[in-house]
Amino acid sequence: MNFNDVMQYAGYLTAGMPFLLLAVTALYALLAKSPSERLLTRLNQVAVTLGLLPALLILILMLNHNMYFVSVDPGHWFEIDQQHFHFHLKCVFDRLSVPFVILSYSLCGTIGAFASRYLHREPGFLRFFFCYAMFLAGMVTSSLAGTIETLFLGWELVGLSSALLVAFFHERRNPVRNGLRVWSVYRVADAAFLVAALVLHHVTGAGDFDELMGHGPWPEGVAAISEDTAFLVGLLLLTAAAGKSALIPFSGWLPRAMEGPTPSSAIFYGSLSVHLGAFLLLRVSPLLEVSPLLSYVVVGTGLCSATLAALMARVQSDIKSALAFASLTQVGIIVAEIGLGFRYLALVHIIGHACLRTLQLLRAPSLLRDHHSMLNAIGSHQPRSAAADVPASPLQWSLYQFAFERGYLDLILDDFIVRPFLGALRWCDRMERRWLRFLEGAGATDSETTPAAPAEISCTLTSVPQQHPAEAGVVQ
Question: CA angle 114-120-126, nearest 5°?
Fold first, then answer.
């Protein structure tokens, strides 16, 4: 077995183990069988270990042989020769993907070991590990994506598992509503992602990142598109990254996502998922070199998000929301670093911040318990004066109210985007119903003035409008 075969087999193991874990847990769920918690934990440990070790092997081999790029290509899935369009899954191991996939495996393994004890005897134990396996598959696929189609596949798996775990406690109303809110924001981000993918296919005929970003090793590649196209594609991908990483104006869903269990909050909004938007910007960072205006927009978005999140983190009343906004502060700084051209600094910042924030969120429940135990051991503590929490000056009061209302981002989106959109849909529904009533009236007039049709034809003509979906299922 030569060197290339070793790299290929290691690449297939790294990319395929999460999907094997997902298939096994899905099989248990479809068969309506509840395996023991110990069995699920063992399966998770085996899958993470068998995925992490080949990734470490690839890293060692790349360092020893001074390699910067290894491609694992399962082949074309769809191709149109006349238009030079093809779609295929492709995994790339380079300076960006290898550290990120090792980070994903390491933190997911830590969260899996913690969740096996934190969710002990929880009725949704199997459901949690199914969503966890889906998330692991999505993160590994996104990390190793060599084409924009592969990245979108992982992007969707991460988003779906995130929304499902926010609504994990579905017997209560708020988790379900907040899960739908998170999913709706992800839909906006995914729409921008799809439009960007279409533009890339139109420009290059394929979704390969090496065709777009050049064949040089990351981050030294040079984008092979014009400045205007780079700005358009970059804005669309920045919108997708903002939706996934809760940058402005999509920061309002982040505290709502804390409705999920603590392990999912740690892995999603403390370490990995919240950094996926920054990872996307790192992957397409050669676009920033082509369009300086796009770099300014990225820096401005990152700094505004960091400033707003720093204000909001200081007025939160629960520890999970405070840590979530603290994570957003660092993510905003990371995005600003990417826009300024500090690619390696941003990557190191992501790795360090993800590890730190994971440990903080996992420590939060026991920290609160230890704090209450200490207060009970000491006895009654001095009550805090309510006047001490009131801001002294009008400026401080305005900033406090602005941060407490989370920058009014939810209100702005509801008033200027959601309600006009729903109003337009309701207007279309009313117009459709009026048009159907007009057609029904015209049909009745024609039946009075024309000779009688055969029975089977008249039954067919009169039955169609009565079973139209707009008459039966649309609620005004």
Answer: 90
Task: Quote the DSSP letter at residue 92.
Answer: E
Query: Would you say residue 122 lies in a domain?
Result: yes
Q: How confident is the model at residue 365 (pLDDT cuts 50, 70, 90)?
A: confident
Domain final residue pick, 349, 367, 385: 367
The string of pLDDT tens digits covering residues 302-315 is 999 999 988 888 88
159 and 255 together in one domain: yes
Residues 202 and 300 in one domain: yes
Q: Are 141 and 150 in contact (CB under 8 A)?
A: yes
Q: Is the dihedral of CA 101, 102, 108, 112 positive or negative?
A: positive
Q: What is the pLDDT of residues 113-125, one digit of tens each?
A: 998 888 888 888 8
Domain for residue 374, yes or no?
Answer: no
Domain identity same for 303 and 230? yes
H/E element, 137: helix 125-144
User: Strand, coil or helix: what is 70?
Assistant: strand
Q: What value does the mean pLDDT of the chain take? A: 80
Q: Are 40 and 125 in contact (CB under 8 A)?
A: yes
The number of folded domains in the chain is: 2
The reply to whether 394 falls in a domain is no
- The CA distances from residue 168 to 29, 158, 178, in Å, are 15, 15, 11
In SS3 terms, 199-239 reads as HHHHHHCCCEHHHHHCCCCCCCCCCCCCHHHHHHHHHHHHH
The 10s digit of each residue's pLDDT in 369-383 is 776 677 777 765 555
Tokens of 198: 């279409």
Query: 468 and 356 in one domain?
Result: no
- Residue at 402 is within a domain: no
Residue where the block lists tokens 């290691």:
10
- Last residue of some domain: 312, 339, 367? 367
For the segment 199-214, the average pLDDT, to the nearest whole number, is 73
